[in-house]
Amino acid sequence: MSVMIRLLASKRMESPKKFDVPRLKDPAVVEQSCLQLSNRFTALKHEHSNEPPEDGNSSGSSVNEYWQKFRNALQEVALKILGGVKRNRRQWMSEETIRLATKKSQLPSRHSPEF
């Protein structure tokens, strides 16, 4: 009797978004982002202060929820103001290499009757 064990594939975590940080060199962008963040954090502060006090057992979840809201607000403003960074991938094969590979694939093989 043999036993087979199958490993489960681990879930890939979503990589954090990268923002176009060099845009912060522009003073107008800095001012706009500060204003947006100030508004969001003020709203978070009022929302947090209006919540009823929780018992001592679930304070960890309250802190985690507040952190999630804080992080999401920061990321949303950064994405809205700065935008994401577009990844520039280098072409790993030159046009000449692609042309030669295509030309080679069109030649008859050694095992074909035309050879």
Describe the overall structure:
- 51% of the residues lie in helices and 0% in strands.
- With 115 residues, it is an all-alpha fold.
- The chain has a domain at 21-51 and 64-81.
> Could you name the ranges where pLDDT drops below 50 across 5 or more consecutive residues?
none
**Chain oligomer state:** single chain
Structural category is mainly alpha
Give the averaged pLDDT, no decimals: 82
**Helix-strand pattern:** HHH
The total count of helices amounts to 3
Q: How many individual β-strands?
A: 0
Write out key terms for the chains shown.
115 residues, 0% strand, flat
Topology:
Blueprint: H1 27-50, H2 59-81, H3 95-106
Helix pairs in contact: 1-2
In short:
The protein is mainly alpha-helical and 115 residues long. It has a domain at 21-51 and 64-81.
